[in-house]
Every structure is written in C-alpha cells, then in structure tokens.
Amino acid sequence: MKTQATRDKLIQIGAELIAEQGFNATGINAVLSRAGVPKGSFYHYFSSKEDFGLAVIDAFAEQYDARLVAILQAPDQPPLARLRRYFEAGRIDMHSCDHARGCLIGNLGQELSSRSEAFRARLDQVFRQWERHLVVCLEEARAAGEVAEDLDAERLAGFILAGWQGAMLRAKTTKSLAPMEAFEQVLFHELLGREVEPRKTAAGAAPETP
C-alpha cells in the first residue's frame, strides 16, 4: 500500500538523518522534505515525534538483528571466526561512513535514555537482544573448546557489547579505526588467548595504523 510505503520511506530517511545529526537536531520538516512527502502530513503516519523515533528504532533493530543472526549463527564457520566477522563488519561500516555515524542505537542511547522512559526501555530491550546473540555464540565457542570451560558467556557478552559501543564512540571522535582494532586485539589476545587474524577495513583498503 502507498501509505505503508510512504511510512517506511519516512522511517528510512529519518534513520539516515538521525544517524548523521542526532534525534533532537532532526526536524520533522527536514525528514518530510528529503522524503518528498508534503509538509503537514507527518501526523497521518505518526502520532508524535517520539512515536516516529520509536518506529525508527524498531526498524533499525529488526534489520540489524537479522544481520547479527546471519553473522553470529553462520553454520559454515566456527564460533570465534563468527565473532571476528562481527567486528570486521563494524569496522567496515565505520570506514564506509568516514567515521561519522557509528551505531544508531548506541548514539540514541547516549542522547535520549535520560530524557524519555519510552526510549530508554526500548533501547535497553534492543541491547539485551543483541547481547543474547553474543551469549549464544560464546556458549558455542565454549562447547567447541575454543575458549576456557569456565568462561562466563553472559558476563563476557555484556563486556563485549559495552566495550564495542565505546570503541565505536572513540573511533568517531578520533576519526580512526584504531580504538576498534585495539578493543578486538585485547579481547582475543588478552581475554580469550587467541591472536586476531589480519583485518580489512573495506574492499581493497588497507587497515589504518594505530
């Protein structure tokens, strides 16, 4: 239906603008203008700007969740190789946007969690779901003998998610992939006792030097 297609387009454009400049700085008129939707019709699709923001979070979370499943549950690779692919995908994303965006959910968590309970609760739910995918991958790594038998998968998954979000924030502020590479190196070499394999930032592009 045209109405659904228009709503989806507004969400897509909204996600792009919010990733670039934040939720509070993203005006409704700017979204409508870029989407080519007549001004004044916003409230036909969303009851409020907060409702719009929650729809953007839901759409992004659904897409990214499918991506995590494809990477972290890939049946053709051992668990730690999947984890390395997860980090590689994050670095490629950061490199492709010239260190400008980072994680939309992480950005919104910093901006909105203290201002809106609805946003805080939904963002926390998204993070918990992502953390669960990491737990499953680490549990499989433990069962396969890739990590120590006494590894606490849930605690490590929480550490990975929090640390990786922080590394992405630092990558944005330094305009360098070095913080992300350093986090991965410490995780695999110091905590998991595994050397990190050679990495690529993008097709044909050499990794940045810390």
What can you see in these coordinates?
- This is Transcriptional regulator, TetR family.
- Keywords: DNA-binding, Transcription, Transcription regulation.
- It comes from Halomonas saccharevitans.
- It holds the Pfam family TetR_N.
- InterPro entries: Homeodomain-like_sf, HTH_TetR, Tet_transcr_reg_TetR-rel_C_sf, TetR_C.
- With 210 residues, this protein is an all-alpha fold.
- The protein has a domain of 143 residues: Tetracycline Repressor, domain 2 (Orthogonal Bundle), CATH 1.10.357.
- Helices cover 70% and strands 0% of the residues.
- The chain is built from nine helices and no strands.
- Helix 1 crosses helix 4, helix 4 packs parallel to helix 7 and helix 6 packs across helix 7.
- The longest helix is centred in the middle third of the chain and has 27 residues.
- The N and C termini lie far apart (50 Å).
- The C terminus is likely disordered.
Summary keywords:
single chain; 210 residues; mainly alpha; Tetracycline Repressor, domain 2; 9 helices; 70% helix; disordered C terminus; transcription; Transcriptional regulator, TetR family
Give the topology:
Elements: H1 2-21, H2 28-35, H3 42-45, H4 49-72, H5 79-96, H6 104-112, H7 117-143, H8 153-174, H9 178-191
Protein name: Transcriptional regulator, TetR family
GO molecular function: DNA binding
InterPro entries: Homeodomain-like_sf (IPR009057), HTH_TetR (IPR001647), Tet_transcr_reg_TetR-rel_C_sf (IPR036271), TetR_C (IPR011075)
